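Human:
I keep going back and forth on a fold encoding question. Comparing notes only helps if you start from a blank page. Show me how you would write down a chain together with its backbone fold. Write it directly below this note and I will take it from there.

Assistant:
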Amino acid sequence: MTEFSTLGLSSSLLKAITAAGYTTPTPIQQAAIPHVLAGNDLMGLAQTGTGKTAAFGLPLVERLLAHPAAAAPRATRALILAPTRELVNQIAQNLVTFVKGSPLQVTTIMGGVSMGPQIKRMARGCDILVATPGRLIDLIERNALRLDMVEYLVLDEADQMLDLGFIHALRRIATLIPKKRQTLLFSATMPKQIEDLSRSYLNDPIRVEVAPAGRTADKVTQCVHFLSQAEKIDKLIACLSERPEDLSLVFARTKHGADKVVRKLVAAGLKANAIHGNKSQNQRDRAIKELKTGETRILVATDVAARGIDIPGVSHVYNFDLPDVPESYVHRIGRTARAGADGDAIAFCAPDEITQLRDIEKLTGIRIPVASGEAPPEGRNAAPRPARGRQGQSQGQSQGQRQGQGRNGQSRNGPSRNTPSHGDDRRSGEATAKPARSQSHGRGQQPAGAKPAARSGQGPRKPQVGGPAQLAAEVQARGQRDGARRNG
């Protein structure tokens, strides 16, 4: 069994993580830490709950301690970008544990809270800055922050940052950072636009994979109930009432929908809270705290909660509404079955969501077992198929915003475990490391198997110049960028 002591970390850092309860490195940590310590750029593909923060955070702290330098005013030596406030806080909390007893300073910058204290903290400078892209740009424009001293850049949950419309902010940030730097990119999925982004940001990167793109956690039992939209709330109340002691996450597509579900649950005698983009940071923090302490057992959320919140013990994830972007389903159910535990993912599918369900099954490579009801005939009552690729995701995001979603408002019943298709017999969590441009060289890990083929037909057909479709797309894109700037 591999130990942290064999990965090249110093005794002082080993002492800090041992005191924090870290015992055995996860596969992503085993595969990534040696490469980061060696100074290589790295592209990591891993699902949520696999220990990615320590995979980049531990070697990052090690390298900063090995080459000490005084923090410069308004500057940082290491910049970590994350898509949501919750994820920024989670990363920072882990980093504070890692730097305990050292002179390194960790600072956070994110939307949803007052900018004044953030400007004041950055006036002193820091060693590690964890930020959302939108708020980072705000501080740069106010001359409260400079990036010319960044030595290390980390993009965490890169696919989610693209989904939320941060691509333009990321490109601008890249122009302000020295070209001579070490860059690490982590993503739960690896669509074509992430591959393109990696070529722009990374230099000859090592590629580390813990699970193939789109693969769901092996310990998650999935099932789907076919029912009408009107029947969903009664089915949800019945499921939750059968397991009052279980910790459950319920995902709705819109902010209004999440609040409506909470009202129905409370009326049925079930205590529940909601988190979404319209909730203040204090409201969101309080809802998550109540779930962690057991004061409530049910949290209803839009997709903002699919990333960045770490709630141990979540046993059930309910997809009250299926997401328009199939990758979001993978992120949602990744909230359960963490740290080796089992979990259940229950999907409710109305007749107009059958297309979304089939897209999810195509991405994950499994046929989700049916727990009740009967699927409608293919092609009848199906919702319009979401366009794939970056353009399709942007359109889906803009549609969600029109429904009241906003930038941060992402919207044990099953009979069997996941059965991966396409001949993939890898065990869950096995990692491989290889140069991004070449075949696996192993490094003591089991071979990763074949990569999934790129999807064809990405993106919608290009509209005619000057036509209404192009005008609508421009309006949607502009609204998405403005929303990202306000909430980042």
Summary: The chain has a mean pLDDT of 79.
